[in-house]
Design a protein that fits this description.
Isopropylmalate Dehydrogenase; alpha/beta
Length: 334
């Protein structure tokens, strides 16, 4: 799982006024002896005495035993805990760009992104909807691993449950209109490929939720489950080589016995996927982007401006994100 014999992991700066600097330092302290080795791309001043300036990722391994290795962005960042300053946007963006470039060049094994404040970035001139869309643009010219489909898919991965929302940040009315059999099949195939290649699941089992209560009850409570989701499930059974179940009533998919029957749950709506994931592992869940040519993970929380600078931020999700990124990168390089 560690990257002791491969390139280190690149950790982006994230919003400097949020909890990113604090959880980076806490993650370093938690992983200093065991690894995985990682380095931050930021203004070293954000990490105080925890930081050790390095010129390149190749120096991270030697530095890691004594301090958090930091590749200097070359720009001073003024951070006020609890405040997202649009003036920091160029540095936040540059950190992401540098992390992706180093990973594509093989100098880093994966990218772990600290949370960003999208409103602040947009005010500073950021033109993408979010992290994932930016990463898609940055990696668009790079080849996918052999046999893998391209297309960013969000997975929330915890110790006991993996979920994938088919639709993400959309009003429910609009999300329902976006659900098609083709979209279900496309995203499910990306998930199945990732389970095999990145998670080491040889024979993936996929559970696909319904949309309506009780998965529509044969059309009595809405027709989408019968007319859209069920045909997609049948197509996946024919072409994927995976065990695919569905459409399943979402309210009975996530108890302990049900979770034993699948490796990932593909859900129609954002909250169908994220409520059980965060209920079961609020501090340990990891946001993973599948369908990119690089490994990318992130803590499954935001900038937490309300607690920034108070020393109370929980670094568990970031620690889990670094460990998962290392495991995925190791499988890709094996």
């Amino acid at each position: 799982m560690t990257t002791r014999h491969g390139p280190p992991i690149a950790l982006t700066m994230g919003e400097p006024g949020g909890v990113g600097p604090e959880i980076a330092c806490k993650a370093y302290e938690a992983l200093r002896k065991s690894g995985p080795v990682f380095f931050a791309i930021a203004d070293p001043a954000l990490y105080g005495s925890h930081a050790a300036l390095i010129r390149s990722p190749a120096a991270a391994r030697e530095a890691f035993a004594n301090a958090l290795p930091v590749v200097d962005l070359g720009a001073s960042v003024k951070a006020t805990p609890g405040r997202a300053d649009p003036a920091s946007a160029p540095a936040v963006i540059a950190s992401i760009e540098r992390a992706v470039a180093l990973t594509l060049a093989g100098e880093a094994s994966a990218v772990v992104t600290n949370p960003i404040q999208k409103a602040s970035l947009i005010a500073g001139g950021f033109s993408h909807q979010g992290h994932t869309e930016f990463l898609e643009a940055l990696t668009g010219g790079a080849a996918m691993p052999s046999g893998r489909r391209r297309g960013a898919v969000m997975m929330i991965a915890g110790p006991d449950l993996r979920t994938v929302p088919l639709t993400i940040h959309l009003p429910v009315r609009e999300a329902v209109g976006r659900i098609t059999a083709d979209l279900i099949v496309e995203k499910a195939m990306i998930v199945i490929e990732a389970l095999k290649a990145d998670f080491g699941v040889r024979s993936p089992r996929l559970a696909i939720s319904g949309l309506n209560p009780h998965a529509g009850e044969g059309g009595a409570i809405g027709t989408e489950d019968r007319d859209v989701i069920a045909p997609a499930v049948e197509r996946l059974r024919r072409i994927s080589g995976a065990r695919v179940a569905g459409p399943l009533p979402a309210d009975t998919m996530f108890h302990a016995a049900a979770r034993e029957t699948y490796d990932v749950a593909l859900c129609m709506l954002h909250d169908q996927a994220l409520i059980p994931a965060k209920t079961l592992a609020f501090h340990e869940a990891v946001n993973v982007t599948l369908g990119l040519p690089i490994v990318r993970t992130s803590p499954d929380h935001g900038t937490a401006l309300d607690i920034a600078g108070k020393g109370v931020a929980n670094a568990s999700s970031l620690i889990a994100a670094i460990r998962l990124a290392a495991a995925m990168a190791a499988r890709r390089s094996a």
